Structure formats: structure tokens, C-alpha cells
Target: Anthranilate phosphoribosyltransferase family protein
Amino acid sequence: MSAEFRELLKKVGSGAHTHKNLTREEAHQAATMMLTGEATPAQIGAFLIAHRIKRPTGIELAGMLDAYSDLGAKLNTIPHISYPLTILGIPYDGRSRTAPISPITALILACHNIPVLMHGGKTMPTKYGLPLIEIWQNLGVNLTQLSIEKAQNLLEETNFSFLYLPEHFPLANKLVQYREEIGKRPPLATLELIWQPYTGNSHLIAGFVHPPTEKMIREALKIRGIEQFTLIKGLEGSPDLKLGQTTIICVNNTQREEGYEYLKIHPEEFNLSREDVDLKDYESYYQEVNKLLQGQQSILSDSVILNGGFYLWRCGFSSSLKDGIDTVINLLDTDKLFTKLEEIKAVLNS
Model:
């Protein structure tokens, strides 16, 4: 047992009226002790559930992110790039109700020389949804055996890469079992959304469900000096924009005193469908993805157009959302997405 960790646990777990928030340094210490196993399993489980009940602060998230930055793998700055690297923070426990769009979004950005980094793990509690790694595997891209050197090379050669938690951050992967055992997503699930495993200039994209989470993330990013971000109230807490309703988005804006502003994206303004695509079964989803890659019409097309157009605009390629959407409409009539996918496969297999 760690007596030092016990004192941190007592602060967050003392009850509704007597608990205390951790300082940034204490949160850094707590996360480090959990990641390295200095805290015992009983202490880790108790901390995660107590922290969830208390709710983390932005300061605590910043400190825990410090530990992730210290101990996790990271890719190095890419030389001679025109745009900041886009980090797509996707919930690690996957999608269970709606069709994921972000892998196609990543290909769209990579086609336009905007580097993209994704990260995630295996099928994970508590949602047990479809994880990114399985989508890429179904597309013929096996990212589970990448060394960190190969991940770096893939990014530099194709403008796309992926960090796989079991391979690149095994210390964090060991904490996954606690989600199963406590039956709840701990605050680490929010931490994963805003992990930035890259040393260079980056643009953080993260999804959220509840407004308090968005505020907490903003506070953590401000404390850590992260100035470029896009936070999306997207499908199932992902950064995928919605067709079925207006999507609320928080973006950095240094011209405003508070440092951010809100956008509202209305799909009907662009004559797009107003229905999000259900994830009825994986096989049907993969068939629709492959239609897109072959330049065919798909039930995913409108969602891909909205998301791809928004991200091309937000990442600086397109001058407006309308211009971004038109660019994606034209792109889907070509084989460029398929060509980019084949390029990724070729570099992986070289």
C-alpha cells in the first residue's frame, strides 16, 4: 500500500461536504502513481470511482495530462508541413448506436496534406462499441503492430498515423480493466479525449456530451497552454457532427477576451439529410464505407460531406464551410480516398 497515495485518495473521497480538489501537482502525482502501479489495485479502483463521484476539475485534468505527457509515447514534429497536425480525440469505448465517420474524415484531411493523428485501444468497457482500430483493420490497415518509429514514418509519408494504446502506452492500457471492474467510465475517459501525443504544433479535436465536460476541458487546455482546439457536442460524445440536429461547437478565438466562441452548424443550410445513420450491424456499415472509397453513393455520404467539409474549413484548407463541403462533394466523385488508403497500406507493408 502507498501511504502517499492514500492521502490523495482521502482528499477526493472524503464525501460530498468534506472532499477537497487536488492541485495540479497532486493530480500529476496521483496519475503517475496509478500508471506506474505504485498505488495498489484497491487504491486505484477507489480513486477512480471517488473521482468520478466528486467530478474532476480542469486543474486536476491538467495535472493528469502532465503525467500522460511524461509517461506516454509521442510522435515528433513533422518537417515542412503547411498545417498543424490534427489530433482526433475519439472516445476509446467506441460507437454503439451511430455510424462512425471519423476514419473517412481522417482520409479526407490526409488527401489535402493536413496531417492527422488518431489514437485508441481495443473494444473497451463500458460501452463495448466499435473501436477505431477494428474499422481500420477491416479496411486492410493493421495498426496494432506499429513500432513508434514506424508510426512516425507513416505520419511523415502519408499524413496519417495511429497510436495504439496496448502497444504505445501500455501503462495506460493496464488501467482499462478498472472500467470493467467498477462498471463506470472514470475521469480517465475525459483525459483520453484531450491527450496530445505529439511534440509539434497541433490542433486538438475532441468530442463531448455534457456542457460541464466542455468547460472542464477548456480549463485544462488553458492551464496547459493549448491554444488551438475544437470541441464538438457530437454523436455519442465523438467529434462527428450531427445531421439530425444542430451541432454545437466550441472553438478557440484569441480575438475574444474569454479565448473561445461557439459555432452552430445547421445541416439543412446545405441541403443535406437530417437523419444520422444508425450502426445497425458492422457488416452493413463496412459495405457503406467501401462504397464511399469506390466513389459510389452511400447512406454515409451526407454525413461524410458535412464532417469533411467542416474539418477542411476548420483546419484552414477551405475558406468557408460551403467551400469545404463543395470540395468534399467533388472528392467523393473520384478515387482519391481509395488511393490514399492504398498509400497507407503500402507504407505499412514496406
Summary: Residues 203 and 343 are 24 Å apart (CA to CA). The mean pLDDT is 96. The domain at 3-71 is CATH 1.20.970.10 (Transferase, Pyrimidine Nucleoside Phosphorylase; Chain A, domain 3). The radius of gyration is 20 Å.
